[in-house]
TrEMBL record:
Family: Belongs to the short-chain dehydrogenases/reductases (SDR) family.
UniProt cross-references to SUPFAM superfamilies, sorted A to Z: NAD(P)-binding Rossmann-fold domains
PROSITE patterns: ADH_SHORT
Keywords on record: Oxidoreductase
Protein name listed in UniProt: SDR family NAD(P)-dependent oxidoreductase
InterPro entries documented for this protein: NAD(P)-bd_dom_sf (IPR036291), Sc_DH/Rdtase_CS (IPR020904), SDR_fam (IPR002347)
Organism: Lysobacter koreensis
UniProt key word Transmembrane: no
Gene3D superfamilies to which the protein is assigned, alphabetical: NAD(P)-binding Rossmann-like Domain
Length: 264
């Protein structure tokens, strides 16, 4: 297998680091990008193989992502695989969510993906080859209450991915989007919003049978074989089918599931 140049945002920890490890084990050169420069350096140093690089960048900043693009192109000349993974988590109802929270979630989780694509897609199109993997969430599909800003932002990532897939059809550049539900990772380290929902998210992650390695393995394999919509956590694919084909039944089940939490 030919080595590829892979850039992963949010690669300093969690899912981003796990995907970086899998690409490095494949023989790819990995650019570990993180808001925390020391964390990016540590992640890069931990990878097997050679040719890796570490960069500090804020996906929520136009200037920072332009600087990242220029640095990566100067060092590598281009990127073959782009993983838009960096993001922040939040929870709470619409009335609990401040406008500052909304702006931050959209700026980082949605426009961060746009910035990554605008930075590195032109080179892929010029070479007529490449792959973009966007990390969304099952929150984009669930239609669940009390994850308002997060669900809307991740829904934006899903829709962006669908439209980008259509725009790039026949170009040689493939698009995938991963929508995991809760799994055992460090999601709460960058939490915004309701402490009540933070506690609920912590419980859901603890109860999940899916480990970080499970999810990373499934996303890595599915993206590699060109799958567009990746649902890597257990039971999610079945829930998505119910919602798609039997929306009223899905809604009733969803409300029955969240009713005990709402009553507390």
């Amino acid at each position: 297998m030919a080595a590829r140049r892979v850039l992963i945002t949010g690669a300093g920890s969690g899912l981003g680091l796990a995907l970086a490890q899998r690409h490095a084990a494949r023989g790819d050169a990995v650019a570990c990008v993180d808001l925390d420069g020391e964390r990016a350096q540590a992640a890069c140093a931990s990878l097997p193989g050679s040719g890796h690089a570490a960069f500090t960048a804020d996906v929520g900043s136009d200037a920072s992502m332009v600087a990242l693009r220029d640095a990566v192109l100067a060092q590598w000349g281009g990127v073959d695989v782009l993983v838009n993974n960096a993001g922040i988590a939040s929870g709470g109802t619409l009335l609990e969510s401040s406008m500052a929270e909304w702006r931050e979630l959209l700026e980082v989780n949605v426009l961060g993906v746009v910035r990554g694509c605008q930075a590195f897609l032109p080179g892929m199109l010029a070479r007529k080859s490449g792959r973009i993997l966007n990390i969304a969430s099952f929150a984009a599909l669930a239609g669940a209450p009390s994850i308002m800003s997060y669900g809307v932002a991740k829904g934006g990532v899903l829709t962006l991915s669908e439209q980008l897939r259509a725009e790039l059809h026949g170009s040689g550049v493939a698009v995938s989007v991963a929508c995991p539900a809760f799994f055992q990772t460090n999601l709460l380290q960058n939490w915004r919003g309701s402490e009540r929902m933070k506690g609920h998210a912590a419980k859901m992650m603890t109860r999940s049978a899916d480990t970080l390695d499970d999810v990373a393995d499934k996303i890595f394999a599915a993206s590699g074989r060109g799958q567009f919509l990746i649902l890597p956590t257990r039971g999610v694919a079945a829930r998505w089918r119910v919602r798609r084909w039997f929306p009223s039944l899905y809604f009733r089940r969803l409300m029955a599931q969240v009713a005990p939490r709402a009553s507390r």
